[in-house]
Amino acid sequence: MATITLDNLAHSYLPRPQGPEDFALKELNHDWQDGAAYALLGASGCGKSTLLNIISGLLIPSQGRILFDGVDVTHAPTAERNIAQVFQFPVVYDTMTVRDNLAFPLRNRGRPEAYVAERVAEIAAMIGMEHVLDRKARGLTADAKQKISLGRGMVRKDVNALLFDEPLTVIDPHMKWELRTQLKKLHHDFGHTMIYVTHDQTEALTFADRVVVMHDGRVVQIGTPEDLFDRPEHTFVGYFIGSPGMNLLPAEVAGRLARIPGGVTPLAVDYPTLTGRVQLGIRPEHLRLSADEGLPVTIRRIEDVGRHRIIRADLEGHDLNIIAPEDQPIGPEMTRAVFDPARIGIYADDWRVAPH
């Protein structure tokens, strides 16, 4: 296990980058704590896999350094970094049995056969493949092969870090839940430093101690799932996390009041005079419908998703999503939306503004 330090790290796939727009990964400084479980979360093309491949040694960064426990490994090959990496699509030895695939990383390091057999049995049980240990990998399905890849990544206890690059893409939904649970247990039992790349917020929020949200090649927030939901530091975090995501409305802010389409809503705290593109952000969970207070809205439709209902409304030409408890009555007279002042965030040029 290791603390992984990213020091002034950035990467461009162009030979002579001229400006920030030429960088797939913009400048990053951060320490990944020894033994923590991280998720790298963001949309396709945001730089997640680029960063993971720099950590693993498959890619040398254009600038900056990467250190394991203070040792510079920027130019060290993957084999010298003592990491295990699982890729999006299965990488297995088709001519080997499942047992030999799982045993390969241990045998390659000269571990005793008794230990190899014990560890393979543990991992096979973890990924649900005890019954096919002696089958050749060639005839197995894609999701079975990916379970072998996951197992091979997890079989060693002595790695500095376990890196997962969208490893559950080809796994069926029920097995995804099972394997995420097993990965959490593995982390709890052995304390590996784990970094898990995904574009799926559910995977990220259920797997990680801390989630690293990436957008347009930069890290926009690092925090617990609660941090990201309750206090998004960037509008992308608010939009990307949550279902539906945060409502974002153009705003003019003066002290404890925000003028938005449809009228004025109070704020819980004072804000300074703001410039640039100012927006009010509020999650659908923190709005409610009313018959006699709040701002007038037009309800377009109501979606019942079992646990609650999602009200799709229009506020002066802007989409507004409201989440209502399943048992809350919604009458035809309830055509106004009330904003919870304590749950409003104010953003200038996409970044959260601190109040006075």
Automatic annotation (TrEMBL):
Tell me where the transmembrane regions lie. Answer: none
What GO terms are given for molecular function? ABC-type ferric iron transporter activity; ATP binding; ATP hydrolysis activity
Report domain ABC transporter positions. Answer: 4-241
Q: Which UniProt keywords apply?
A: ATP-binding, Cell membrane, Membrane, Nucleotide-binding, Transport
The superkingdom of the source organism is Bacteria
A Pfam family it matches: ABC_tran
Q: Which InterPro entries match?
A: AAA+_ATPase (IPR003593), ABC_transporter-like_ATP-bd (IPR003439), ABC_transpr_FbpC (IPR015853), ABC_transpr_MalK/UgpC-like (IPR047641), Mo/tungstate-bd_C_term_dom (IPR008995), NA-bd_OB-fold (IPR012340), OB_MalK-like (IPR040582), P-loop_NTPase (IPR027417)
Q: Among the entry's GO cellular component annotations, what is one?
A: ATP-binding cassette (ABC) transporter complex, substrate-binding subunit-containing
Concerning its family, UniProt says: Belongs to the ABC transporter superfamily.
Q: Identify this protein by name.
A: ABC transporter ATP-binding protein
